[in-house]
Amino acid sequence: MKHWLLKPTRAVFLALTMAATAFIAVSPLQPAMAQARALPDFTDLVDQVGPSVVNIRTMEKVSLRSAQGGQGDEDMLEFFRRFGLPMPNIPGNPKQAPRQNRPQQEEEQPRGVGSGFILTADGFIMTNAHVVDGADEVLVTLTDKREFKAKIIGADKRSDVAVVKIEATGLPAVKVGDVSRLRVGEWVMAIGSPFGLENSVTAGIVSAKQRDTGDFLPFIQTDVAINPGNSGGPLINMRGEVVGINSQIYSRSGGFMGISFAIPMDEAVRVSDQLRSSGRVSRGRIGVQIEQVSKEVAESIGLGKPSGALVRSVEPGAPADKAGIEGGDIITRFDGKPIEKSSDLPRIVGGTKPGSKSTITVFRRGTTKDLSIVIAEVEADKPAVKTSGRDEKPKSSAAGQSVGLAVSELSDAQKKEFKIKGGVRVDAAVEAAARAGLREGDIILTLANAEVLSVKEFEAALSKHDKSKPLLVLVRRGELAQYVLIKPAR
Fold this sequence. Notes:
six-stranded antiparallel beta barrel, disordered N terminus, Thrombin, subunit H, alpha+beta, Pdz3 Domain, globular, about 20% helix
């Protein structure tokens, strides 16, 4: 057998050189350099978007009067202090009591701190509705330390979007991003004023999209650190575009726990456009009570998969009633758009112009029907009317402290407005109550299946309840009633 010794040619040397280079490029000796190149740098984004983010402080007028307070007032003050709520004006409180023989007067006190961002160069600013709700004065501070008094153009509680206006021009407005391009796992950044610390920058990734939290809008979920004071600030993508408004967090402690929610910017812009044009938001309604379709129901009626919205009841005389929708129908499409889950329906209907004619597809007794319907308008939120004297501040009960609730009596006007004979209004919900989904403005009708007509009955029902067991609460929110289960802390 012959063995041939081949002389290496120029081509062979080139091939060997390229192979060695490739080996070095993928060699585990350089992972740190590869990782360093992959990490995002937010410095340019901060320089680009930072000047468009503002700090928002709100003030509230409080009546000063001389009177003597009792132990109940001290208990209530301790409750507000514990949960970081705005301190109410309590007669007899040494820090709040006026000098003797001093005539009654009003004093402006700080109410809260939030964030916002400049929407247009001529001074329109977007923030959360809960940041400016109930404020008598709104103060906006720019990054260059200029401060302006702002006018509230409009606030929409259902979407938690508000627009305020300052008298200034040539302001650095943000760029609005396309939320449909946002991807789970994408890097995002937030700028705001957590705990009043202005221009704080935090970053993370998009954890989920279209997250249903029971509110009117589907949220963007992120792991960006958001804390009290960040509310109303922008969520920014790596192109320097605002894709959301930081609005809520999930927390057992009141602070950040790795889950935060932002209002998608496309929804927020639709709301802000209406607020700027008319000061309010017009939404459609059809007058049905709905719930999610379970797997068992879907299989038993031949629907196939558990999708659509199951109609529990139809409001007499409402558009759904006139269109022929019946209890037990499953709404599967609205104007050709599929209803995958029940929460899709109110969002799609709400975005439909009142007075327009639409087509609803229902699944009824094994067959599909198309029904024509004329959309009605959701009644606008009525602004809270402030009264002078002792009724200015609601009398909150400290009895709800064990479940994270502060409540107050309903006025006769509120009972008449909601067509109920009684109940208590939620003034604040934290810890266990907040985790269960309760929020300010809710009306509690029953506790543990016991009717609650007043704060006194609320306290009595809570005192009888075993605090180691979940508490079933019937809540009225707007026109809808729902059961909420408050679970004890573990």
